[in-house]
Design goal:
Strand order of the largest sheet: 1-2
Number of strands: 2
Shape: globular
Largest sheet: 2 strands, antiparallel
Strand content: under 5%
Distance between the termini: 54 Å
Oligomer: single chain
Order of helices and strands: HHHHHHEEHHHHHHH
C-alpha cells in the first residue's frame, strides 16, 4: 500500500472510515489535551531532566516552545524500548534523552536540510504529490541560493525554479505572500551584487536575543 502512487490519500480515506470526522481532532482539542497531560506528567515523571524541562515549559511565554516540550515529554511516560547498534556490534537501549533528541531534525547547517529531509521521507512520498513537489522546489531554490558562484545557466535555472514554485503554491494555497514576491527579485540581485551568502545579514539576527532578554527582564 505504501508504494502506491496515491498511498497518502488511501491512508486518509481508511482513517476517516474508522474514525469519521476525527482527522483534525488533536489540533482542535490540543489546549485541553495539554492541561490534562501536564497534570499526568507531574504525577508520573521521575526523570530529573524531564522534570526540569516540564518546569521550563510551565513558566515560558513561548507557546511553540511549550508545545514542543509537552510533546517530547511523552517519551518520559511512554518509556522508549528501542535498541540501536553502537560501532556496529553492541546493542544499546535508547534512553529518554535519545528519544527526545531523535524527535528533532538535527542539522549542522541549513544547507543540510534538503539532504536529511529526503533521507527521512523522500522514498515514502510519491513524486506526484503536489505538496511534496512544492517542498522539493523550495529545497532546490535554497540550495542554489547558497552557492558561492553563479553562471548565466544557474541564474536561468533559479528563475525557472522560483516560477515553478510560485505556480504550484498559488494552485495549492491561493495568493502569494510578500516574501514570495521578494524571491522573484533574487536572481537580479545576484546579478548586481554577487552571491547572496556574502551579503546576507542572518548572523546579526542573533542580536535580537539581547533585546528580547532585556525587554523580558524589565517587564517581568
Amino acid at each position: 500500500m505504501l508504494k502506491l502512487t496515491k498511498r497518502c490519500r488511501y491512508i486518509n480515506l481508511d482513517f476517516n472510515l474508522i474514525y469519521p470526522a476525527k482527522d483534525n481532532l488533536l489540533k482542535t482539542k490540543w489546549d485541553n489535551f495539554k492541561t490534562k497531560i501536564v497534570n499526568y506528567y507531574y504525577a508520573n515523571i521521575r526523570n530529573q531532566q524531564s522534570i526540569d524541562l516540564l518546569n521550563q515549559a510551565k513558566t515560558t511565554k513561548k507557546i511553540d516552545f511549550q508545545d514542543y516540550i509537552f510533546t517530547i515529554l511523552l517519551n518520559s511516560v511512554l518509556l522508549p524500548s528501542a535498541r540501536f547498534s553502537v560501532d556496529g556490534n553492541t546493542k544499546k537501549k535508547a534512553t529518554i534523552k535519545d528519544a527526545n533528541e531523535s524527535f528533532v531534525l538535527q542539522l549542522t547547517t541549513i544547507s543540510d536540510y534538503s539532504i536529511r529531509i529526503k533521507e527521512i521521507i523522500g522514498d515514502l512520498i510519491s513524486p506526484d504529490v503536489k505538496h511534496w513537489k512544492l517542498l522539493v522546489l523550495l529545497i532546490e531554490i535554497v540550495d542554489l541560493l547558497f552557492d558561492s558562484s553563479f553562471s548565466n545557466f544557474d541564474l536561468d535555472k533559479l528563475k525557472n525554479l522560483i516560477k515553478a514554485h510560485h505556480q504550484i503554491y498559488i494552485l495549492l494555497y491561493g495568493n502569494l505572500k510578500p516574501k514570495h514576491h521578494f524571491l522573484v527579485h533574487y536572481p537580479h540581485a545576484i546579478e548586481k551584487c554577487g552571491p547572496l551568502k556574502f551579503v546576507w545579514a542572518m548572523r546579526f539576527e542573533a542580536k535580537h536575543k539581547d533585546a528580547k532578554t532585556y525587554f523580558n527582564n524589565i517587564t517581568s
